[in-house]
Amino acid sequence: MIQIVFDMDGVIFDTEALCQKAWRTVGEERGISIAEIDELLKLCIGSNQQHMTEVLREKLGVDFPVQCFLSEAAEQIQLLANEHLLLKKGAEELLKWLKEQKATVGLASSTASPIVKKYLEKAGLTEYFQIIIGGDQVIHSKPDGEIYQKACAALGTDPSQTYGVEDSYNGVRSASNAGLKTIMVPDLLAPTEEMRERACTVQPDLLAVKEYLRKEQKKSE
Fold first, then answer.
1. Model confidence over 121-130: pLDDT tens digits?
2. CA-to-CA distance for 134 and 7, rounded, in angstroms?
3. For 179-188, how does the pLDDT look when each residue is reduced to its tens digit (9 = 90+)?
4. Fewer beta carbons within 10 angstroms: which end of the chain, N or C?
5. What are the DSSP calls for 135-167, one per residue?
6. Is residue 97 within 8 Å of 210, Cβ to Cβ?
């Protein structure tokens, strides 16, 4: 039986693009170039607010109003999500198939759990996940493996026998560090050599992930 844990942003929902747009808007207001914002976002994608705070303080200096920046960006993201919360290609098809297969399915997102649940409810996807772990429920952010370890513990699965589906570098590192069979589905960030080494496969979208899992399932029968 398939055991799998998904990231949310950039995997289930097309929210990483919304995040990028929000960060660029708020960054521009504070005199930060788009190129610099994109580099900062590359370091932060897939991590929770605590990790983002540490990165921004390190890169922009202790005098930069990090909390104001993150708060304003979060407000922008919510506004955009209210109007443009789109599913990634193949998300619903894959989740429905996994339910038909009686798979064990969890979600491990760096986004705070109330927002995760809000998004899933809005899209009508809550029923597909047996457990949800948000970034507010762990001490150590991705790329640390804590969130995936916690998700597997909640599901009662062995990490080495569980798939982790991620789009970001921090996410792939997190799932890999936790010992999961990591599947990368790139969103804003193209796979690097490190990502290909950490992942058991890199797939273009969730429809391709469905076919990959189908083939792997047949091999184990």
1. 999 999 999 9
2. 10
3. 999 999 999 9
4. C
5. GGG-SS-TTSSHHHHHHHHHHT--GGG-EEEE-
6. yes
